[in-house]
Design goal:
The chain has about 625 residues and is mainly β. The protein has six domains: about 5-30 and about 455-550, Immunoglobulin-like (Sandwich); about 35-120, Immunoglobulin-like; about 125-205, Immunoglobulin-like; about 210-285, Sandwich (Immunoglobulin-like); about 295-370, Immunoglobulin-like; about 570-625, Orthogonal Bundle (Muramoyl-pentapeptide Carboxypeptidase, domain 1).
Length: about 625
């Protein structure tokens, strides 16, 4: 027996055909925790958690101060914990994303429950601006925020001759008609007492305006620009700022100081004299400073559906990533952990998410949120529930080329796309969100739930034993055959998911190729048969030079299992460079360092395989590499 097969031995002997299983040593992984959240009254939420036994549970959630972590307690001997949390006490943002971690394993991201009309827990209607100063003919848009800000109505306009008002989702547009003032009040359809107001001042266009040393200016991210003011009477004041989260404006004597808080976006800033006798407008645009290197995203312009989320991977730069700005958190909620950016659609609209890196450099991601049923592509069915070891197809409707942009938990289910069909294979109990996108277009999320685990069963009609085995991609398993009589024969396995080889010493070698379920029929001379069902998982440690095993003198195909991008090092990068060299895309040094030359070769490989040329190895590119 090969030295690579030392390990544990398991024997099965049912009927007249016996099979002994000799496993390679396998790594033990902590269980992936699960969590469900139930609103139990007021702002109290009960969390029901399962995971490793006798282990600490950490709640990861979003508050007004950013991402927070709190210890909930310890699981019991059965790996269970129930904890009730006050939303207000913890400062958790209603409808925000949260998850739990146990032994450094994180659960699937969930949505924190909330009560629609509870205005004490951060759901009161608020406006991006509460005062507006406009010239006749000028317009401005105010954004409304709360859980139901997309369902508003105009409650009152104290002087409609001064300004007209129109509402589109959570955008309140004010158009100045005549000089004067008016107070505009909007309310939530879900709660008529949940309202907010904006005061509007409209000035005549023939008054003497304030002048500026420059009134159209670009401010580099992190920089300051000073503008000199002149004209008017009295002191100067900032009357309104259309986007204070983009450009911060302050006044000192006759100087206006502008600071860019993001790397993109713009603001219209109105400066007035203290007696309101004259006003002027400055148009400011935020930009990236010349010495900053921009970041890139795995999706350049994602589109998500209301109440669904999408996963975007950030790459480039050096240091720790952080969210610098969100132009409209009422439209899109963004949460960044490491290089994984989770986007959640709050309401229909668009937003700009700016991500920066501590070493310098930023990137801005435009995100569109559409209503249910309005996405350019759709799935049939829209969600799947499978048993572990089972697979199913999902049809994509739309046009163009499709690709999988992310899989929130590839250990739960694998997914591959062929044409307009997605094949999903259940691997183990749990759930995952698979983001399916249209090249250059929109995306839609496929929710997959997997139940149960595979086990040995007996066909009640034929009495044939069905053995259920689990392998990792690239892993080998040796079966010692006994019972009936040799020679044995195999049938029913095409080698796509795993290969099966009968050896002269009456052993059967199984080798995992790629994630998914498959089976092989094993029979003896007297037609006593066994069905061996194999589930291959993608999460095996990478095969190295020291553990490469050969079957019939043919080396195993290396399986890529990790995200590889600029800055990555090690065996996986070496294997990638070797593969790209073989395929004619790479001519640089094979040194195990993922740099700009390797990224350029990856882009060539992606373009040749009709994949988005993003320059790093994500799920879709891994599938193409592993399909050789």
């Amino acid at each position: 027996m090969s030295k690579f097969f030392s390990g544990r031995i398991f024997k099965f002997a049912i009927g007249s055909l016996a099979v002994c299983l000799l496993f390679l040593g396998q790594q033990v992984y902590a269980a992936v925790p699960t969590v469900t959240a139930t609103l139990v009254g007021g702002d109290s939420v009960t969390l029901t958690i399962t995971g490793d036994a006798n282990a600490n549970v950490i709640l990861n959630y979003l508050s007004s101060g950013g991402v927070q972590m709190s210890a909930l307690g310890t699981t019991n001997a059965n790996g269970q914990l129930s904890a009730t949390v006050s939303t207000a006490t913890y400062g958790i943002r209603p409808a925000s994303l949260f998850y739990v971690t146990i032994n450094n394993q994180r659960s699937e991201t969930q949505i924190w429950p909330y009560t629609v009309n509870n205005t004490t827990n951060g759901t009161a209607l608020t406006l991006s601006q509460t005062t507006l100063t406009l010239l006749v003919g000028q317009s401005n848009t105010v954004t409304a925020y709360n859980n139901n800000a997309s369902s508003l109505y105009l409650a009152s306009n104290s002087n409609p001759a001064v300004a007209n008002v129109s509402i589109n989702n959570n955008q309140v547009t004010v158009v100045a008609n005549a000089s004067g003032s008016t107070t505009i009040t909007v309310c939530s359809l879900a709660n008529s007492s949940n309202c907010a107001s904006v005061s509007v001042t409209v000035q005549s266009t023939n008054i003497r305006t304030i002048t500026f040393s420059q009134n159209n200016v670009t401010v580099g991210y992190g920089q300051n620009v000073t503008i000199t003011l002149a004209g008017g009477t009295g002191t100067y004041t900032v009357s309104s700022n259309s986007s204070p989260s983009t450009i911060q404006a302050t006044i000192s004597a006759a100087s206006l100081n502008l600071q860019a808080l993001t790397s993109s976006g713009s603001a219209v800033i109105t400066i007035c004299a203290s007696d309101m006798s004259s006003c002027g407008i400055v148009n400011a645009t935020a930009g990236v400073t010349g010495n900053s290197s921009a970041l890139s995203f795995s999706q350049a312009n994602p589109t998500i559906v209301v109440a669904q989320n999408a996963i975007v991977t950030v790459s480039g730069g050096s240091g720790t990533y952080y969210i610098s700005a969100n132009s409209n958190s009422g439209i899109v909620q963004a949460n960044l952990v490491g290089s994984t950016l989770t986007l959640f659609g709050n309401s229909v609209g668009a937003a700009l998410i700016t991500v920066c890196v501590s070493g310098g450099g930023c990137g801005t991601l435009p995100v569109n949120v559409v209503s249910q049923g309005s996405a350019a592509i759709s799935l049939n069915p829209a969600s799947l529930t499978l048993n572990a070891g089972q697979s199913s197809n999902v049809a994509i409707s739309g046009s163009g080329t499709y690709y999988i942009s992310s899989n929130s938990n590839s250990a739960i289910a694998s997914a591959t796309i062929s044409g307009s069909n997605v094949t999903v294979a259940g691997l183990t109990s749990g759930s995952t969100n698979i983001n399916i996108c249209q090249s250059g277009g929109q995306c839609v999320v496929l929710y997959v739930a997997i139940t149960g685990t595979i086990s040995n069963t007996t066909n009640q009609t034929s009495g044939t034993l069905i053995y259920s085995l689990v392998l990792n991609a690239g892993q080998k398993l040796n079966l010692m055959l006994g019972g009936d009589q040799a020679p044995y024969n195999l049938s029913g396995n095409d080698g796509t998911i795993f290969t099966s080889t009968l050896n002269s010493d009456n052993t059967l070698t199984l080798t995992g190729v790629k994630a998914g379920p498959a089976s092989v029929n094993l029979c003896g001379v007297n037609n006593n048969c066994t069905v061996i069902r194999v589930l291959v998982k993608p999460s095996a440690p990478a095969v190295t030079e020291d553990t490469t095993v050969k079957t019939n003198d043919t080396p195993l195909v290396y399986q890529f299992v990790d995200l590889l991008k600029i800055g990555a090092k090690g065996t996986a990068v070496t294997k990638l460079q070797q593969r790209l060299t073989e395929d004619g895309f790479y001519s640089g040094p094979i040194n195990g360092n993922f740099g700009a030359v390797t990224s350029a070769a990856v882009k060539k490989f992606q373009a040749a395989h009709d994949l988005p040329a993003v320059g790093y190895i994500g799920p879709s590119t891994r599938a193409a590499l592993n399909n050789k």
